[in-house]
Amino acid sequence: MHNYTKKELMTLITGKLRRNFGRDVEEATSLHMFKACAMVLRDIISERQMKTEDKVVEKHQRQVHYLSLEFLMGRSLMKNAYNLGVLEPLKQAIEGLGFSAPDLFEAEPDAGLGNGGLGRLAACYLDSMTTLEIPATGYSICYELGIFKQKIVDGQQVELPDNWLGLGDAWLIPKMDEVEEVRFGGKIEDEWDSLGNHRIKHTDYDVVLAVPKDMEISGYHTDHANLLRLWDAKSPTPVDMHLFSSGQYLKAVEQRAMAESISKVLYPEDNHYEGKSLRLKQQYFFVSATIQSIVRKHRAEYGTLRNFHQKHAIQINDTHPTLAIPELMRILLDEEGYGWDEAWYIVTHTIAYTNHTVLAEALERWPQQLIESLLPRIWQILVEISNRYQQLLTDYFHGDLSKVAPMAIIWGGEVRMANLCVCACYKINGVSALHSDILKKDVFKDAYQRTPDKFTNVTNGIDHRRWLSECNPRLDELIQDCCGGDKYQLQPDALKGLEKYQNDAGVLSRLGEIKTANKKAFATWVAREHGIFLNTDAMFDVQVKRLHEYKRQLLNVLHIIYLYQKMKNDVHFDFTPRTYLFGAKAAPGYAVAKRIIRLINSVADMIAKDPICKDRLQVVFLENYRVSLAEKLMPASELSEQISTAGKEASGTGNMKFMMNGAVTIGTLDGANVEMHQVLGDENIFLFGLKAHEVAELKHSGYKSYEYYVHNPDLRAVVEQLNLGFGDGINYDDLARRLLFGDGCPADEYLLLADFESYRDAHVRAGKAYRDPKLWNKMSLMNIARSGIFASDRSIRDYAKDIWKVPVREIK
């Protein structure tokens, strides 16, 4: 590995400015400078990536293909510089050329090609696969507009477009010689030749071209590099000049606009037919281009697809890429001429499925007629898979339709994607021990009974180099001092070395000072960006994640209202001062989630205006929560809110980032919180609430939220406050009704009222512990020390060993 110096990097950057932008340094803007720096790093990674590719071909290595409709990459300049070991010389080179390195890093837009945890996980996994030297490629769509920019106007979320490609495309390399053709619509005809051989003829279809734009992925301290291939949708038809000349301008560009809409925006809303159609087009476009691309390269190397399953592992991240299954069948049957059994054998030994949810509404189902009209050949293959599977199930369950119906792939005019995965994939994994258990015992109970060997667990993990070392340099320094250097970067278990300092007053005091410095740095940033002054003497109590009812941001708010009411009614009410920080985006069509955002802002406004709350209680909603904001917030956080209804959160990864940065969790035994509790013990986490089996039992016996409201005067006062409002003229009686009586759904579906008292008690315990700095810092230290198991390197080692069967880099 070449160690670049400040001088070498200055020369390379200056060269890029001249050759690519026709600018000397003196004439260059910060935009030119950013792109020049990105291109220099891109060149370094490119060279490594080409050598990696040559090695893979030369040794005929088995490759991993990670298909995900989301990759929440965040910013890449600092990350790539860090992984390549050139961060310090790059900073010096930028400053030496008369620019501010922090300003340049800050100017980069987040590559927001995802909605939340799913996309962020995929990004962490790419980093770990590359660092562990697994030949791997990620695949997704090159969305022109990533997740929307969130603006809060009058307390309400407003969505603005996020055009990240202005600067972000500096990382993308278009490969025009590897364009794939994706077909939609048309007619399918059967043909037989004179020898009686059958073939499929597809006519009258529309073509969309998939143009690969490759983002190169650097690993940490390795010459290995991988790719994230983002497919951009283009029309093969140029603008119709005849129509244009006759003044029909819109008609002339219509075909082009229809094709390019596929990669225009991250997931359209699909609560209407057009949205469903576009989302299905996105899914098929991305998997068809991907599978064709993998097949093309394999055929060029081996001349046959009979060994395809031996050389490739295709991992589908949630159900969005499920159409990879019939698409690979289509190619094997129609283009390669294989018989059904041989094709099915290859498919079912190539593709594995990661399930990310137990929520019924998130297990994708597609209307039959939509697939039939949009993807006629895929529909035929799905029908055949479904019929064969149904026959197998009917035989296995001795004709018991009550077992067959929930497992069927096509049923009641719908195609069920999760069931297709369960049928066709050779491995199915959940993403935390609890979640995988629920899949086996509940969601896919009968499938598990029939094929138990298919089911396994791989607990999620996070890229600890980004989420600790890079974003929290003060803490990184302490860890290196205590654990003998940077060994933990490649061996996250080495964090355990911190444990021996759990009673060391000097180390605990230094840890407290680091947290204080991080809080002040974050407060400075918030003041500069938003004009809000955070009380850094109070505990930073943080809940940041997507806004969804099951994640229970509303429970947090109800507790804040309770604290406010106690302060107003009791001058002697004593509690630990808190600065509550929320960050969350609500899906544009999710009305209840948007109401909860407005409620948080109403409560924040009321508290900010009341002198009684000064220096004791503060609530701030952080606008436009994203990866780059999280990187600043995690090091400053002290209490991590992981309060979803037990049995609803598959894993969570925010919980791991907080833990690794020394925040202590207040949470339910849900998702990966269960495994966090196992390594931390009762003394280093604040648990509350019903457990998953208790939630199921309570719902089964008939949960009555109204009874909790009637019997708990504090809770009753809080719910009444929702009806009355918070001084800004808005009341939230709709949310109160939803909690007490339901609103087209069961009352208090996520059991906020049932868990309220237990949650309040856990907060009392947390507040008490916080007042003892030595105790708190010890808890914080133990969280960091035991977080190594939640590094994505460990997750990827598990996938490599148990699912993909590929070797990984040995770390000495």
What's the quick description here?
Helices cover 50% and strands 15% of the residues.
Description:
With 812 residues, this protein is an alpha/beta fold. The protein has a domain at 504-787: Rossmann fold. The strands form six sheets. Strands 1, 4, 7, 8, 11, 12, 13, 14, 18 and 19 form a ten-stranded mixed β-sheet that branches.
Structural key phrases:
812 residues; alpha/beta; Rossmann fold; 10-stranded mixed beta sheet; 6-stranded parallel beta sheet; 34 helices
Global mean pLDDT? 94
- What global shape is seen? globular
Instruction: Report the portion of residues in β strands.
Output: 15-25%
From the 3D coordinates, which CATH architecture of the domain at 504-787 would you assign? 3-Layer(aba) Sandwich
List the helices and strands and how they pair.
Layout: H1 6-21, H2 30-59, E1 63-67, E2 71-74, H3 77-84, H4 87-96, H5 101-107, E3 111-113, H6 117-131, E4 136-141, E5 149-153, E6 156-160, H7 165-168, E7 172-174, E8 180-184, E9 187-192, E10 198-203, E11 206-218, E12 225-234, H8 241-245, H9 249-260, H10 273-302, H11 308-311, E13 312-317, H12 324-335, H13 340-348, E14 351-354, E15 365-367, H14 368-374, H15 376-396, H16 401-407, E16 410-411, E17 414-416, H17 417-424, E18 428-430, H18 433-443, H19 445-450, E19 455-457, H20 464-470, H21 473-483, H22 505-530, E20 539-544, H23 553-569, E21 578-583, H24 591-609, E22 617-621, H25 627-633, E23 639-642, H26 654-660, E24 664-667, H27 673-680, E25 686-687, H28 692-701, H29 705-711, H30 713-724, H31 733-740, H32 752-770, H33 773-785, H34 792-804
Parallel strand pairs: 1-4, 1-13, 4-12, 13-14, 14-18, 18-19, 20-21, 20-23, 21-22, 23-24, 24-25
Antiparallel strand pairs: 2-3, 5-6, 7-11, 8-11, 9-10, 11-12, 15-17, 16-17
